[in-house]
């Protein structure tokens, strides 16, 4: 038995002709450019926090339309470092969602803060702004004060950010966007991650912008905050060997930074390809299966193309029989996982919509290098499901 990156058991891997994700295909598509970038780093003799990292940070900030970006070792560290830079730690609560990669909650705990989990709007699978506002107005008893909110732009779909920002502004609470699944998604014509004080991106290989190893990046228009983040990521050094405050080690290495510079130049095209694949899937859906909702005024960048059905297992088995792999993002809400069950604060909605979604969602193959023939194969199989 093999486990893929989403933990799904691939029982008949040999028969799969359309994988659910394929970072290897992402490498092959840009092999010449990536190999040259890696060779450049190897020959340079400088392997951590050098010219490639500075180049990637400048190019990523420019692509975001922001002044600063800070490369770090992974997306979890990006979130934890952003919280630290906002002085969020022990004695603080941080609100986020249960319907996310567990990393979002792990980052809150890394800084010693207490997570409180808000339910989702079931149409878009993102944080319910009304429940967040209610929790900010009347926090659950026994919870430390809420000092930050982390909305997650899940599956490539922007959250309903305006009411979240408004509720947070009323309470003087900063918003830290988790953009790990939404590099390039827009809301009201602006890229997510650029509308709040600080935003965090995982650059894990399967993400819309993915390294060939671990990576993460924090984006901000606040120069002082960026300078503090850059120090915190390396032992709190503002000057070499001198720690002005206690920091950590979460550096982005030069090899990944060089690869990410190559990938960044192709990101807009890769997102457009994901959107075209999503449109082909939409057109093939029949019967009870409904295309994923797109938020009005937003562009969805389809980190995942997620369907929902009470007959999930049966549909997945039918697709698998045709050589098509699917995934589940995520099979178990954070608050029901063994590490958290009974130990984590929930808002008044008790994450019921999250639990219902987790029981029914499944993700079709989605990565830019899917061939037209593979997309047609999935579409044909979807037509037969109806
Ligand atoms: C991938 C992901 C993370 C964590 O990123 P890592 O690079 O794996 O640490 C955090 N939040 C969300 C929503 C993610 O999808």
What features would you describe in this structure?
With 386 residues, the protein is α/β, with parallel strands linked by helices. The chain has two domains: 145 residues, Aspartate Aminotransferase, domain 1 (Alpha-Beta Complex); 238 residues, Aspartate Aminotransferase, domain 2 (3-Layer(aba) Sandwich), CATH 3.40.640. The chain is 38% helix and 16% strand. The chain has a four-stranded mixed β-sheet, sandwiched between helices. It has a four-stranded parallel β-sheet with strand order 8-4-5-18, sandwiched between helices. It has a three-stranded antiparallel β-sheet with strand order 11-10-16, with no helix packed on it. Strand 1 and strand 2 form a beta hairpin. It is globular and about 65 Å long. The mean pLDDT is 95. Pyridoxal-5'-phosphate binds next to helix 4 and helix 5.
CATH superfamily of the largest domain: Type I PLP-dependent aspartate aminotransferase-like (Major domain)
Please give the radius of gyration in angstroms: 21 Å
Give the CATH architecture of the largest domain. 3-Layer(aba) Sandwich
User: What percent of residues are in strands?
Assistant: 15-25%
CA distance, first residue to last residue: 31 Å
CATH fold description of the largest domain:
Aspartate Aminotransferase, domain 2
Number of domains: 2
Task: Characterize the biggest β-sheet.
Answer: 4 strands, mixed
Question: Given the structure, what is the number of helices?
Answer: 13
* Structural class by helix and strand composition: alpha/beta
Let me know the number of strands: 19
What bound compounds does this protein have?
pyridoxal-5'-phosphate
Helical fraction equals 25-40%
**Shape type:** globular
Please state how the strands of the largest beta sheet are arranged side by side. 3-13-12-9
Low-confidence stretches: none
CATH class annotation of the largest domain: Alpha Beta
Average pLDDT? 95
């Amino acid at each position: 038995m093999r486990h893929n990156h989403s933990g799904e058991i691939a029982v008949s891997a040999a028969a799969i002709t359309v994988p659910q994700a394929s970072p290897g295909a992402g490498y092959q598509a840009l092999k010449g450019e990536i190999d040259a970038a890696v060779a450049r780093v190897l020959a340079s003799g400088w392997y951590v926090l050098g010219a490639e990292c500075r180049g990637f940070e400048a190019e990523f900030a420019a692509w975001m339309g922001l002044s600063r970006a800070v490369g770090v070792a992974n997306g979890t560290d990006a979130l934890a470092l952003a919280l630290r830079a906002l002085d969020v730690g022990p004695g603080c609560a941080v609100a986020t969602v249960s319907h996310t990669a567990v990393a979002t909650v792990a980052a809150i705990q890394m800084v010693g803060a207490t997570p409180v989990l808000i339910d989702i709007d079931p149409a878009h699978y993102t944080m319910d702004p009304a429940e967040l506002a209610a929790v900010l107005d009347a926090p659950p008893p026994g919870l430390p004060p809420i000092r930050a909110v982390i909305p997650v732009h899940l599956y490539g779909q922007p959250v309903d950010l305006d009411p979240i920002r408004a509720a947070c502004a009323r309470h003087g609470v900063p918003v830290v966007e988790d953009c790990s699944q939404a590099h390039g998604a827009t809301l009201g014509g602006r890229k997510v991650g650029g509308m709040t004080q600080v935003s965090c991106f995982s650059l894990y290989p399967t993400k819309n912008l993915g390294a060939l190893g671990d990576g993460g990046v924090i984006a901000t228009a606040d120069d002082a905050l960026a300078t503090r983040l850059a120090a915190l990521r390396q032992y709190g050094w503002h000057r070499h060997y001198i720690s002005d405050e206690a920091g950590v080690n979460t550096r982005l290495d030069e090899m990944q930074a060089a690869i990410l510079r190559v990938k960044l130049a192709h990101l807009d095209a890769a997102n457009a390809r994901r959107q075209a694949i999503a449109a082909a899937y939409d057109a093939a859906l029949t019967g009870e299966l409904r295309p994923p909702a797109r938020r009005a005024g937003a562009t969805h960048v389809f980190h995942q193309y997620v369907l929902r059905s009470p007959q999930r297992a049966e549909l997945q088995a039918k697709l698998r029989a045709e050589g098509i792999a699917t995934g589940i993002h995520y099979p178990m809400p954070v608050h029901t996982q063994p590490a958290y069950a009974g130990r984590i604060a929930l808002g008044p909605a008790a994450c019921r919509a999250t639990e219902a979604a987790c029981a029914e969602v499944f993700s079709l193959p989605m990565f830019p290098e899917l061939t037209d023939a593979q997309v047609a194969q999935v579409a044909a199989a979807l037509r037969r499901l109806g």
